[in-house]
Amino acid sequence: MNTDVFKDIKPSIKIPLKLKLFLPVSFIIIIVVTLSAIIFINLTISAYNDHIRNTLDLEVKILTKMFERESILKADKVETNLKIVNKIFYNENISFAKDSFNVKIENQNNSEIKSVWLKEFRRGSENLYNDTVFINDLEKLFGGTITIFQKFDDGFVRIATNVKKADGSSGINTYIPNNSLVSETILKGEKYYGRALVVDSWNITAYEPIYLNEEIVGILYVGIEEKDVSELNKILNTLTIGKSGFPFVMDKEGNMLMFPENQEKFENTKEIFQLFNSDKDGSIHIKSNGKNHTIKYHYFEKFQLYIAATIIKDVENKSLINKAILAAIIIGLIMILLLSILIYRFTTEKLYRYLSELRIINRKLVNAQVALKRSERLANMGQISAGIAHELNNPLGVITMYSNIVLDELEPEDPKVEDLKIIVSQAERCKNIVSGLLNFARKSKIKFSETNIEEFIKNSLKSIVVPPNVQIKFESKLKNPKLKIDYEQLMQAITNLEKNAIESMQNGGELSIKLREDGNNVEIIISDTGSGIKEEDLDKLFTPFFTTKPLGQGTGLGLPLVYGIIKMHNGKILVESNTKPENGRTGTEFKIILPGLT
Ligand code: ADP
Ligand code: MG
Question: Half-sphere exposure of residue 550, counting CA atoms within 13 Å on the CB side?
Answer without folding.
Answer: 0
